Amino acid sequence: xxxxxxxxxxxxxxxxxxxxxxxxxxxxxxxxxxxxxxxxxxxxxxxxxxxxxxxxxxxxxxxxxxxxxxxxxxxxxxxxxxxxxxxxxxxxxxxxxxxxxxxxxxxxxxxxxxxxxxxxxxxxxxxxxxxxxxxxxxxxxxxxxxxxxxxxxxxxxxxxxxxxxxxxxxxxxxxxxxxxxxxxxxxxxxxxxxxxxxxxxxxxxxxxxxxxxxxxxxxxxxxxxxxxxxxxxxxxxxxxxxxxxxxxxxxxxxxxxxxxxxxxxxxxxxxxxxxxxxxxxxxxxxxxxxxxxxxxxxxxxxxxxxxxxxxxxxxxxxxxxxxxxxxxxxxxxxxxxxxxxxxxxxxxxxxxxxxxxxxxxxxxxxxxxxxxxxxxxxxx
Length: 380
Description:
The protein is α+β, with helices and mostly antiparallel strands. The protein folds into 2 domains: 7-45 and 149-213 and 340-376, FAD/NAD(P)-binding domain; 87-141 and 215-337, D-Amino Acid Oxidase, Chain A, domain 2, CATH 3.30.9. 32% of the residues lie in helices and 26% in strands. The strands form 4 sheets. Strands 5, 6, 7, 14, 15, 16, 17, 18 and 19 form a 9-stranded mixed sheet that branches. It has a 6-stranded mixed sheet with strand order 9-2-1-13-21-20, covered by helices on one side. Helix 2 (58-78) packs across helix 5 and helix 2 crosses helix 10 (361-376). The protein is globular, with a radius of gyration of 21 Å. The chain starts with 6 loop residues before the first strand and ends with a helix. Keywords: Flavoprotein, Oxidoreductase. Its cofactor is FAD. Residues 8-369 form the FAD dependent oxidoreductase domain. It comes from Luteolibacter rhizosphaerae.
Protein backbone atom coordinates (compact mmCIF):
# COMPACT_ATOMS: atom_id res chain seq x y z
CA UNK A 1 0.00 0.00 0.00
CA UNK A 2 1.30 3.43 -0.93
CA UNK A 3 1.71 5.62 2.16
CA UNK A 4 3.61 8.64 0.84
CA UNK A 5 1.76 11.71 -0.35
CA UNK A 6 0.92 11.70 -4.06
CA UNK A 7 3.24 13.82 -6.19
CA UNK A 8 1.21 16.24 -8.31
CA UNK A 9 2.65 18.35 -11.12
CA UNK A 10 0.82 21.41 -12.38
CA UNK A 11 1.76 22.96 -15.73
CA UNK A 12 0.83 26.65 -15.74
CA UNK A 13 0.60 29.24 -12.95
CA UNK A 14 -2.52 31.05 -14.13
CA UNK A 15 -5.68 30.97 -12.06
CA UNK A 16 -6.66 27.45 -13.19
CA UNK A 17 -3.22 26.05 -12.37
CA UNK A 18 -3.03 27.78 -9.00
CA UNK A 19 -6.55 26.64 -8.13
CA UNK A 20 -5.52 23.04 -8.85
CA UNK A 21 -2.34 23.48 -6.85
CA UNK A 22 -4.32 24.74 -3.85
CA UNK A 23 -6.94 21.99 -4.07
CA UNK A 24 -4.31 19.27 -4.48
CA UNK A 25 -2.32 20.58 -1.51
CA UNK A 26 -5.46 20.66 0.64
CA UNK A 27 -6.06 17.04 -0.38
CA UNK A 28 -2.67 16.10 1.07
CA UNK A 29 -0.60 16.03 -2.12
CA UNK A 30 2.92 17.27 -2.65
CA UNK A 31 2.56 19.82 -5.41
CA UNK A 32 5.01 21.38 -7.87
CA UNK A 33 3.93 24.10 -10.28
CA UNK A 34 5.87 24.63 -13.52
CA UNK A 35 5.53 28.02 -15.22
CA UNK A 36 7.45 29.10 -18.30
CA UNK A 37 7.36 32.81 -17.36
CA UNK A 38 8.61 34.57 -14.24
CA UNK A 39 5.00 35.14 -13.13
CA UNK A 40 1.45 34.88 -14.45
CA UNK A 41 1.25 37.00 -17.61
CA UNK A 42 -1.72 35.60 -19.52
CA UNK A 43 -5.49 35.91 -19.38
CA UNK A 44 -5.55 35.47 -15.59
CA UNK A 45 -4.15 38.97 -15.04
CA UNK A 46 -6.00 40.56 -17.95
CA UNK A 47 -9.59 40.51 -16.72
CA UNK A 48 -12.08 42.55 -14.71
CA UNK A 49 -11.21 41.02 -11.36
CA UNK A 50 -14.75 39.74 -10.96
CA UNK A 51 -15.83 36.68 -9.06
CA UNK A 52 -19.13 36.69 -10.94
CA UNK A 53 -21.49 33.87 -9.86
CA UNK A 54 -24.50 35.69 -11.35
CA UNK A 55 -23.24 34.73 -14.80
CA UNK A 56 -23.38 31.00 -14.14
CA UNK A 57 -26.33 28.78 -14.97
CA UNK A 58 -28.08 27.10 -12.05
CA UNK A 59 -26.25 23.78 -12.43
CA UNK A 60 -22.92 25.58 -11.88
CA UNK A 61 -23.99 28.22 -9.39
CA UNK A 62 -23.07 26.24 -6.27
CA UNK A 63 -19.57 25.69 -7.70
CA UNK A 64 -19.25 29.43 -8.27
CA UNK A 65 -20.32 30.06 -4.67
CA UNK A 66 -17.65 27.60 -3.49
CA UNK A 67 -15.11 29.65 -5.45
CA UNK A 68 -16.41 32.71 -3.68
CA UNK A 69 -15.85 31.04 -0.28
CA UNK A 70 -12.29 30.18 -1.23
CA UNK A 71 -11.59 33.71 -2.49
CA UNK A 72 -12.79 35.02 0.85
CA UNK A 73 -10.51 32.56 2.67
CA UNK A 74 -7.52 33.60 0.56
CA UNK A 75 -8.09 37.34 0.80
CA UNK A 76 -8.68 37.15 4.56
CA UNK A 77 -5.37 35.29 4.95
CA UNK A 78 -3.31 37.59 2.72
CA UNK A 79 -4.98 41.00 2.92
CA UNK A 80 -5.43 40.99 -0.85
CA UNK A 81 -7.90 43.50 -2.25
CA UNK A 82 -11.46 42.22 -2.16
CA UNK A 83 -14.80 44.02 -1.97
CA UNK A 84 -18.06 42.10 -1.63
CA UNK A 85 -19.79 44.69 -3.76
CA UNK A 86 -22.40 42.56 -5.46
CA UNK A 87 -23.42 43.67 -8.92
CA UNK A 88 -26.15 45.57 -10.73
CA UNK A 89 -27.34 44.96 -14.27
CA UNK A 90 -28.56 48.32 -15.56
CA UNK A 91 -30.85 48.17 -18.60
CA UNK A 92 -32.22 50.89 -20.87
CA UNK A 93 -34.73 48.89 -22.97
CA UNK A 94 -38.05 47.25 -22.16
CA UNK A 95 -37.02 43.90 -23.62
CA UNK A 96 -33.94 43.87 -21.37
CA UNK A 97 -36.07 44.76 -18.34
CA UNK A 98 -38.35 41.84 -19.24
CA UNK A 99 -35.37 39.47 -19.17
CA UNK A 100 -34.39 40.69 -15.71
CA UNK A 101 -37.95 40.28 -14.41
CA UNK A 102 -38.17 36.76 -15.84
CA UNK A 103 -34.86 35.83 -14.29
CA UNK A 104 -35.73 37.21 -10.84
CA UNK A 105 -39.05 35.38 -10.87
CA UNK A 106 -37.44 32.13 -11.99
CA UNK A 107 -34.79 32.35 -9.26
CA UNK A 108 -37.19 32.68 -6.35
CA UNK A 109 -36.42 30.01 -3.78
CA UNK A 110 -32.95 29.31 -5.23
CA UNK A 111 -29.50 30.31 -3.90
CA UNK A 112 -29.39 33.29 -6.30
CA UNK A 113 -29.62 36.56 -4.33
CA UNK A 114 -31.34 38.76 -6.90
CA UNK A 115 -33.98 41.47 -6.76
CA UNK A 116 -35.39 44.09 -9.13
CA UNK A 117 -34.58 47.77 -8.78
CA UNK A 118 -36.84 50.55 -10.00
CA UNK A 119 -35.27 53.33 -12.09
CA UNK A 120 -35.40 55.59 -9.04
CA UNK A 121 -33.59 52.99 -6.91
CA UNK A 122 -30.96 52.52 -9.59
CA UNK A 123 -30.25 56.25 -9.65
CA UNK A 124 -30.27 56.65 -5.86
CA UNK A 125 -28.34 53.50 -4.92
CA UNK A 126 -25.90 52.85 -7.76
CA UNK A 127 -23.02 55.29 -8.25
CA UNK A 128 -21.81 55.63 -11.83
CA UNK A 129 -25.19 55.30 -13.57
CA UNK A 130 -26.17 58.10 -15.94
CA UNK A 131 -29.30 59.93 -14.86
CA UNK A 132 -32.52 59.36 -16.75
CA UNK A 133 -31.56 56.29 -18.80
CA UNK A 134 -32.30 53.25 -16.65
CA UNK A 135 -35.55 51.37 -17.30
CA UNK A 136 -34.74 48.91 -14.51
CA UNK A 137 -31.93 47.26 -12.64
CA UNK A 138 -31.21 43.91 -11.06
CA UNK A 139 -29.22 43.69 -7.85
CA UNK A 140 -27.22 40.55 -7.11
CA UNK A 141 -25.47 40.02 -3.80
CA UNK A 142 -23.02 37.26 -4.69
CA UNK A 143 -20.25 39.04 -6.60
CA UNK A 144 -16.80 39.98 -5.27
CA UNK A 145 -14.50 42.61 -6.78
CA UNK A 146 -10.86 41.46 -6.84
CA UNK A 147 -7.62 42.72 -8.32
CA UNK A 148 -6.34 39.95 -10.63
CA UNK A 149 -2.83 41.36 -10.87
CA UNK A 150 -2.43 41.47 -7.11
CA UNK A 151 -4.23 38.17 -6.52
CA UNK A 152 -2.08 36.25 -9.00
CA UNK A 153 1.04 37.77 -7.43
CA UNK A 154 0.03 36.82 -3.87
CA UNK A 155 -1.33 33.33 -4.54
CA UNK A 156 2.08 31.63 -5.14
CA UNK A 157 3.70 32.80 -1.86
CA UNK A 158 0.47 31.95 -0.03
CA UNK A 159 0.51 28.43 -1.46
CA UNK A 160 4.22 28.01 -0.75
CA UNK A 161 4.06 29.26 2.85
CA UNK A 162 0.74 27.70 3.88
CA UNK A 163 0.80 24.46 1.90
CA UNK A 164 4.40 23.79 0.86
CA UNK A 165 3.69 24.11 -2.86
CA UNK A 166 6.92 24.33 -4.87
CA UNK A 167 7.23 26.65 -7.86
CA UNK A 168 9.58 26.29 -10.82
CA UNK A 169 9.45 29.68 -12.50
CA UNK A 170 10.93 30.33 -15.94
CA UNK A 171 10.71 26.59 -16.55
CA UNK A 172 9.07 25.57 -19.80
CA UNK A 173 7.63 22.06 -19.93
CA UNK A 174 8.26 20.58 -23.37
CA UNK A 175 6.99 17.02 -22.86
CA UNK A 176 4.50 15.32 -20.56
CA UNK A 177 4.51 11.52 -20.54
CA UNK A 178 3.14 8.84 -18.28
CA UNK A 179 4.59 9.54 -14.83
CA UNK A 180 7.27 11.97 -15.95
CA UNK A 181 7.60 15.38 -17.54
CA UNK A 182 10.60 16.99 -19.19
CA UNK A 183 11.58 20.66 -19.19
CA UNK A 184 13.33 22.66 -21.88
CA UNK A 185 16.57 22.47 -19.88
CA UNK A 186 16.51 18.68 -20.12
CA UNK A 187 15.45 17.98 -16.53
CA UNK A 188 12.97 15.21 -15.82
CA UNK A 189 10.44 15.26 -12.98
CA UNK A 190 8.42 12.28 -11.81
CA UNK A 191 4.79 12.58 -10.73
CA UNK A 192 1.78 10.50 -9.79
CA UNK A 193 -0.69 12.92 -11.36
CA UNK A 194 -0.14 15.87 -13.70
CA UNK A 195 -2.54 18.64 -14.69
CA UNK A 196 -1.90 20.71 -17.79
CA UNK A 197 -3.49 24.08 -16.98
CA UNK A 198 -1.89 26.27 -19.62
CA UNK A 199 -5.04 27.63 -21.25
CA UNK A 200 -5.19 27.33 -25.00
CA UNK A 201 -1.42 26.86 -24.99
CA UNK A 202 -1.85 23.16 -24.18
CA UNK A 203 -1.92 22.89 -27.98
CA UNK A 204 1.89 22.98 -27.74
CA UNK A 205 2.04 19.80 -25.63
CA UNK A 206 -0.99 17.94 -27.01
CA UNK A 207 -1.80 19.37 -30.46
CA UNK A 208 -3.96 16.42 -31.49
CA UNK A 209 -6.15 16.81 -28.39
CA UNK A 210 -6.57 20.53 -29.01
CA UNK A 211 -7.46 19.93 -32.66
CA UNK A 212 -10.20 17.47 -31.67
CA UNK A 213 -11.53 19.55 -28.76
CA UNK A 214 -14.50 21.96 -28.80
CA UNK A 215 -12.19 24.80 -27.75
CA UNK A 216 -11.39 27.96 -29.65
CA UNK A 217 -9.07 30.77 -28.62
CA UNK A 218 -10.96 33.93 -27.70
CA UNK A 219 -9.43 37.40 -27.68
CA UNK A 220 -10.86 40.23 -25.58
CA UNK A 221 -9.95 43.91 -25.47
CA UNK A 222 -10.15 45.94 -22.27
CA UNK A 223 -9.30 49.37 -20.86
CA UNK A 224 -8.59 51.00 -17.54
CA UNK A 225 -9.27 54.62 -16.59
CA UNK A 226 -7.04 56.78 -14.47
CA UNK A 227 -7.80 56.57 -10.71
CA UNK A 228 -11.05 58.36 -10.00
CA UNK A 229 -10.67 61.69 -8.18
CA UNK A 230 -11.37 62.26 -4.52
CA UNK A 231 -11.64 58.59 -3.62
CA UNK A 232 -14.83 58.20 -5.68
CA UNK A 233 -16.24 54.66 -5.38
CA UNK A 234 -18.06 52.73 -8.08
CA UNK A 235 -20.12 50.76 -5.57
CA UNK A 236 -21.49 47.52 -7.05
CA UNK A 237 -19.88 46.23 -10.20
CA UNK A 238 -21.90 47.16 -13.27
CA UNK A 239 -23.19 45.33 -16.32
CA UNK A 240 -25.45 46.51 -19.10
CA UNK A 241 -28.33 44.85 -20.93
CA UNK A 242 -25.86 43.75 -23.60
CA UNK A 243 -24.37 41.39 -21.03
CA UNK A 244 -27.58 39.37 -20.97
CA UNK A 245 -26.50 37.98 -24.35
CA UNK A 246 -23.21 36.74 -22.91
CA UNK A 247 -23.88 34.70 -19.78
CA UNK A 248 -25.54 31.29 -19.58
CA UNK A 249 -27.60 32.19 -16.51
CA UNK A 250 -29.98 34.22 -18.69
CA UNK A 251 -30.30 31.78 -21.59
CA UNK A 252 -33.59 30.34 -20.34
CA UNK A 253 -35.39 33.71 -20.24
CA UNK A 254 -38.07 33.90 -22.99
CA UNK A 255 -37.49 37.61 -23.68
CA UNK A 256 -33.79 37.15 -24.40
CA UNK A 257 -34.54 36.29 -28.03
CA UNK A 258 -36.05 39.75 -28.52
CA UNK A 259 -32.95 41.38 -27.04
CA UNK A 260 -30.66 39.41 -29.33
CA UNK A 261 -32.79 40.18 -32.39
CA UNK A 262 -32.88 43.91 -31.62
CA UNK A 263 -29.12 44.12 -31.13
CA UNK A 264 -28.48 42.15 -34.33
CA UNK A 265 -30.86 44.42 -36.24
CA UNK A 266 -29.87 47.80 -34.83
CA UNK A 267 -26.22 47.30 -33.84
CA UNK A 268 -24.71 44.41 -35.83
CA UNK A 269 -21.25 45.80 -35.15
CA UNK A 270 -21.63 44.70 -31.52
CA UNK A 271 -22.35 41.12 -32.54
CA UNK A 272 -19.46 41.22 -35.01
CA UNK A 273 -17.01 41.79 -32.15
CA UNK A 274 -18.95 40.11 -29.36
CA UNK A 275 -19.19 43.35 -27.39
CA UNK A 276 -20.98 43.61 -24.08
CA UNK A 277 -20.03 46.21 -21.49
CA UNK A 278 -19.19 45.94 -17.81
CA UNK A 279 -17.27 47.97 -15.25
CA UNK A 280 -15.40 47.18 -12.05
CA UNK A 281 -13.01 49.19 -9.87
CA UNK A 282 -9.47 48.16 -8.97
CA UNK A 283 -7.66 48.73 -5.69
CA UNK A 284 -6.21 52.03 -6.93
CA UNK A 285 -9.62 53.48 -7.78
CA UNK A 286 -9.36 53.05 -11.56
CA UNK A 287 -12.36 51.74 -13.49
CA UNK A 288 -11.78 48.60 -15.55
CA UNK A 289 -13.87 48.62 -18.74
CA UNK A 290 -14.69 46.05 -21.41
CA UNK A 291 -15.04 43.80 -23.20
CA UNK A 292 -15.10 42.14 -26.61
CA UNK A 293 -14.86 38.63 -28.07
CA UNK A 294 -13.09 37.54 -31.26
CA UNK A 295 -12.66 33.84 -31.97
CA UNK A 296 -10.28 31.54 -33.79
CA UNK A 297 -9.23 32.76 -37.20
CA UNK A 298 -10.78 36.19 -36.62
CA UNK A 299 -8.13 36.99 -34.00
CA UNK A 300 -5.48 39.45 -35.12
CA UNK A 301 -2.30 40.32 -33.24
CA UNK A 302 -3.14 44.01 -33.44
CA UNK A 303 -5.87 45.53 -31.29
CA UNK A 304 -8.68 47.39 -33.01
CA UNK A 305 -9.38 50.99 -32.07
CA UNK A 306 -12.86 50.46 -33.48
CA UNK A 307 -13.59 47.93 -30.73
CA UNK A 308 -12.44 50.30 -27.98
CA UNK A 309 -14.55 53.11 -29.44
CA UNK A 310 -17.64 50.88 -29.64
CA UNK A 311 -17.21 49.77 -26.05
CA UNK A 312 -16.82 53.36 -24.88
CA UNK A 313 -19.89 54.36 -26.90
CA UNK A 314 -22.02 51.74 -25.18
CA UNK A 315 -20.55 52.39 -21.74
CA UNK A 316 -21.25 56.12 -21.97
CA UNK A 317 -24.89 55.45 -22.85
CA UNK A 318 -25.51 54.06 -19.37
CA UNK A 319 -22.66 55.04 -17.08
CA UNK A 320 -21.17 58.32 -15.93
CA UNK A 321 -17.81 58.27 -14.15
CA UNK A 322 -16.02 61.39 -12.87
CA UNK A 323 -12.96 60.82 -15.08
CA UNK A 324 -13.09 58.83 -18.33
CA UNK A 325 -9.44 59.31 -19.29
CA UNK A 326 -7.94 55.97 -20.37
CA UNK A 327 -4.65 55.04 -18.73
CA UNK A 328 -4.20 51.51 -20.13
CA UNK A 329 -5.41 49.36 -23.00
CA UNK A 330 -4.69 45.65 -23.43
CA UNK A 331 -5.97 42.35 -24.71
CA UNK A 332 -6.06 38.80 -23.40
CA UNK A 333 -6.58 35.41 -25.02
CA UNK A 334 -8.22 32.45 -23.33
CA UNK A 335 -9.66 29.07 -24.30
CA UNK A 336 -13.40 29.22 -24.96
CA UNK A 337 -15.52 26.10 -24.47
CA UNK A 338 -18.88 26.51 -26.21
CA UNK A 339 -20.47 23.45 -24.63
CA UNK A 340 -19.56 23.38 -20.93
CA UNK A 341 -18.11 25.30 -18.01
CA UNK A 342 -14.68 23.66 -18.40
CA UNK A 343 -12.72 21.27 -20.60
CA UNK A 344 -11.09 18.20 -19.08
CA UNK A 345 -9.36 15.43 -20.99
CA UNK A 346 -7.50 12.38 -19.67
CA UNK A 347 -4.73 12.23 -22.24
CA UNK A 348 -2.50 9.63 -20.57
CA UNK A 349 -2.73 7.58 -17.37
CA UNK A 350 -2.36 10.13 -14.59
CA UNK A 351 -2.27 13.09 -17.00
CA UNK A 352 -5.21 15.42 -17.43
CA UNK A 353 -5.75 18.67 -19.31
CA UNK A 354 -7.83 21.20 -17.37
CA UNK A 355 -8.77 24.42 -19.14
CA UNK A 356 -11.61 26.04 -21.08
CA UNK A 357 -13.20 28.06 -18.27
CA UNK A 358 -14.22 30.48 -21.04
CA UNK A 359 -13.47 33.82 -19.42
CA UNK A 360 -14.90 32.71 -16.06
CA UNK A 361 -11.62 31.60 -14.53
CA UNK A 362 -11.79 34.01 -11.61
CA UNK A 363 -15.33 32.81 -10.89
CA UNK A 364 -15.07 29.07 -11.42
CA UNK A 365 -11.47 27.84 -11.05
CA UNK A 366 -11.32 27.48 -7.28
CA UNK A 367 -14.66 25.69 -7.11
CA UNK A 368 -13.97 23.40 -10.06
CA UNK A 369 -10.56 22.36 -8.73
CA UNK A 370 -11.99 21.84 -5.26
CA UNK A 371 -14.73 19.63 -6.65
CA UNK A 372 -12.25 17.61 -8.70
CA UNK A 373 -9.81 16.86 -5.90
CA UNK A 374 -12.54 16.11 -3.39
CA UNK A 375 -13.52 13.16 -5.56
CA UNK A 376 -10.19 12.12 -7.11
CA UNK A 377 -7.68 12.12 -4.23
CA UNK A 378 -8.52 11.38 -0.61
CA UNK A 379 -6.60 13.37 2.04
CA UNK A 380 -3.70 11.47 3.59
